[in-house]
């Protein structure tokens, strides 16, 4: 769950999936996330109120931004404003101060997408019934690991919902140099993903830095497929399912000196190594 520039080992036979059904504790009374999974939706609805009910408690910048929104449509049938997501992002002015919702129609978009740091408050919005597929085959060999991502979100307050984001590069064989291939890199602060599927092999999701939320998301990979220096709710996996087609894989490895990951109210199958964690051959990191 950490690292890059790694080789395939015992993880090679594993494709692990994690279903994240957690959310940030934004309640006025700081009510903790319940341990009973059946209470999650009630807790969420009670504590994460609609924007119209929470304006006075929001970051003033957010309250101002959400008061006025722009919607632009990306459609492959020429019925939208743009045919590609990249063109839609390019149309957003630098330093925008209003939420821009990029509505992406169904279909596969083979392009490498970057939301630059100077374009905050961007939402990529798909459809839960006809999920748009954002795909590219970038690798570390060509772009470097962190820049190999199909979607790179560098700006603050980025949101994505109902999207499949995939790196279609071949599965690493343990011999090919630079085979790491990121599907999504999130580098801005206060970002969130809802009902998204992130698919790849090695280094699928780079939570680069910042505070992020992943709710009802599916994340798939073979090794180090969640990594980075971000401080996000997935660092506390709440009400998740850890499954796969292999066995004996570690929940994570200590790629850096002070790693910290918490699993709470989470279901794990025999895919997980009973030891739980790997210190990556650095015993001093066990603490």
Automatic annotation (TrEMBL):
It is an enzyme of class 3 (hydrolase). Keywords: Aspartyl esterase, Cell wall, Hydrolase, Secreted, Signal. Pathway: Glycan metabolism; pectin degradation; 2-dehydro-3-deoxy-D-gluconate from pectin: step 1/5. GO terms for molecular function: pectinesterase activity. Residues 1-27 form the signal peptide. Pfam families: Pectinesterase. Its EC number is 3.1.1.11. It is found in: Secreted, Cell wall. One of its GO terms (biological process) is pectin catabolic process. Belongs to the pectinesterase family. PANTHER family: ACYL-COA THIOESTER HYDROLASE YBHC-RELATED, PECTINESTERASE 63-RELATED. This is pectinesterase. It comes from Pyrus ussuriensis x Pyrus communis. The lineage of its organism: Eukaryota, Viridiplantae, Streptophyta, Embryophyta, Tracheophyta.
């Amino acid at each position: 769950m950490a690292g890059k520039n790694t080789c395939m080992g015992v993880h090679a036979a594993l494709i692990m999936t994690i279903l994240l059904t957690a959310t940030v504790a934004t309640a006025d009374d700081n009510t903790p996330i319940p341990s009973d999974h059946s209470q999650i939706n009630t807790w969420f609805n009670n504590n994460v109120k609609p924007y119209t009910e929470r304006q006075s408690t929001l970051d003033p910048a957010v309250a101002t931004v959400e008061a006025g929104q722009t919607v632009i449509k990306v459609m492959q049938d020429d019925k939208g404003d743009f045919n590609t997501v990249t063109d839609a992002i390019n149309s957003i002015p630098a330093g925008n101060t209003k939420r821009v919702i990029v509505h992406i129609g169904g279909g596969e978009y083979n392009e490498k997408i970057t939301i630059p740091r100077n374009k905050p408050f961007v939402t990529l919005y798909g459809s839960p019934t006809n999920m748009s597929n954002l795909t590219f085959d970038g690798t570390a060999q060509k772009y470097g690991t962190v820049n190999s991502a199909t979607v790179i979100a560098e700006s603050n307050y980025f949101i994505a919902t109902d999207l499949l984001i995939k790196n279609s590069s071949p599965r690493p064989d343990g011999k090919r140099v630079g085979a790491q291939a990121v599907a999504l890199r999130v580098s801005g602060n206060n970002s969130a993903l809802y009902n998204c599927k992130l698919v790849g092999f090695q280094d699928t999701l780079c939570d680069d830095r910042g505070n992020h939320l992943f709710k009802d998301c599916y994340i798939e990979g073979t090794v180090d497929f969640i990594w980075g220096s971000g401080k996000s709710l997935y660092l506390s996996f709440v009400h998740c399912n850890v499954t796969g087609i292999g066995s004996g894989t570690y929940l994570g490895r200590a790629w850096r000196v002070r790693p910290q990951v918490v699993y709470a109210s989470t279901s794990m199958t025999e895919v997980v190594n009973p030891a739980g964690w790997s210190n990556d051959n650095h015993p001093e990191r066990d603490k």
